[in-house]
Amino acid sequence: MKRFKLLVMALVVVLSAFALAGCGSSDQKAGDATNTGSTDASLQTVLDRGVLRVGMCPEYPPFESINENNEIVGFDPSLAAAIGKEWGVEVECINTPWEGLIAGLNNGDYDVIMSAMSPEEATAATKAVELSENYYELADVIVVRADNTDIKSKEDLAGKIVGVQDACSAAQAAEDLPNQGIKVAKLNHYTRNAEAYAELANGRIDALVVSLTYANEQAKNNPGYKVINDPLHNVGIAVVAKEGSVALINKINETVNKLKANGTYDEIAVQWLAAD
Amino acid sequence: MTNLDFTTLLPYINLLPAAIAITLQVGLGGFILAIVLAIVVGSLRTRKLNWAVHLVLTAYVEFFRGTPLLVQLFVVYYGLPSFGIRIEPMIAAIVTMGLNSGAYLSEVVRASILSVDRGQYEAAAMLGYNSLQTISQIILPQALRIAVPTFMNGFSSIIKETSLISVLPVVELTKLGNQIYAKTYHPFEIYITMAIIYFVMTYSVTFLAKWLERRLSVWVN
């Protein structure tokens, strides 16, 4: 009996240690912030290394996706490359799953996240981040099957089954619908947008909510879908860095503004995001 | 039903070998670690032990059997850095797969050892074997022969479970599949192809297992 008690105790200790590990990341960051608060080496570290490491989940064309040569391409990698060129450093895009992006940032796997992440998405995960100014605005819109005729605005979503990708701005927008008096029959969360699209094609859901750029890209590839241009809301996307990386974020803001002024930003936007 | 068009995958075919190699590395690495752990932990757990060792081993087995592998992967890779332990993604994947599978397989080893007849111990003691000689030369060879089919079962599972490491920044077969899927929007073609690759990998293990079983059982018949 004594042994049994000890066993239970040991299990409790082990499990709580792991439970702490889950939320421990925020404690750790608080510690980091105090360390880096006085001497913010975030920018200098990158310049000294000569490499800006950017975390992204390449499952979100046209912002980022892999090509036939296993390179990550899209709006974010191109913008990151332009920033790196300004600084005279290499840019390395680090292929990371969406759910691991913030954890990987805290882990130090990369310096910043550029993965079409909105400030809301980043701060939903943890408050302990530094955010750049929004470098792009995108709208979350409704997509339905091309033959659908009864959904024309977000109000028509009432009583419908709606799908979204988990833990992203579209999910936040869809979860917010009841607060606007629009009661959907059911809100299904998927790991990736691609799964929500498959469900829409299968007819298990009536509509999905996704960003306008992704929806346009998809509609271009597949005539079976129709984009309803009644934005649920507009979200900005920002560069996300670890709390305390103020110098790095300031420099990124400065460089993005420069790229906007000299036309480089527009070239990249036209190349990847031009919706037609 | 969607029309299947496997030609959409063709441009990405050259990405498969690297992803398969990673899946195999994690699968094999995890399996080898699992076997070593299973034999050590499994044989220790059949004996009367110091309570502290007993506690640690029991906690290990019960924890890794009782929690989802996905959670373990997350905790090991994303959680441990909070305690200052930083592990490369590949190492984290192999270690976690090995620890997880080792916990299951250690029970197989334990059961196999318990299935060896009591008389074998008595005969060994009669012949003057000490306890280490008895376990390593008399009991384990017999026990492991019994364990081989289940071990191979474990290998098949481990190969398929490597799909869970797609939550780490490691591009193995499943993650590559997801990323091609995100790009081409052809889920069925991609997942069917992946399923075939996983099947080929695990089915070839079945042949290895049959050969091994035959070899190890020669003296029985």
UniProtKB/TrEMBL annotation, chain A:
Pfam families: SBP_bac_3
Alphabetical keyword list: Signal
Top-rank taxon, per record: Bacteria
Organism: Sporotomaculum syntrophicum
Signal peptide extent: 1-21
Protein name: ABC transporter arginine-binding protein 1
SMART domains xref list: PBPb
Domain Solute-binding protein family 3/N-terminal: 51-276
InterPro entries named in the record: Solute-binding_3/MltF_N (IPR001638)
Automatic annotation (TrEMBL), chain B:
Stretch forming the signal peptide: none
Keywords, sorted A to Z: Amino-acid transport, Cell membrane, Membrane, Transmembrane, Transmembrane helix, Transport
GO MF annotations in UniProt: transmembrane transporter activity
Membrane topology: Multi-pass membrane protein
InterPro entries: AA_ABC_transptr_permease_3TM, ArtM/GltK/GlnP/TcyL/YhdX-like, MetI-like, MetI-like_sf
UniProt-annotated location(s): Cell membrane
Domain of life from the UniProt record: Bacteria
Main location: membrane
Protein name, entry field: Inner membrane amino-acid ABC transporter permease protein YecS
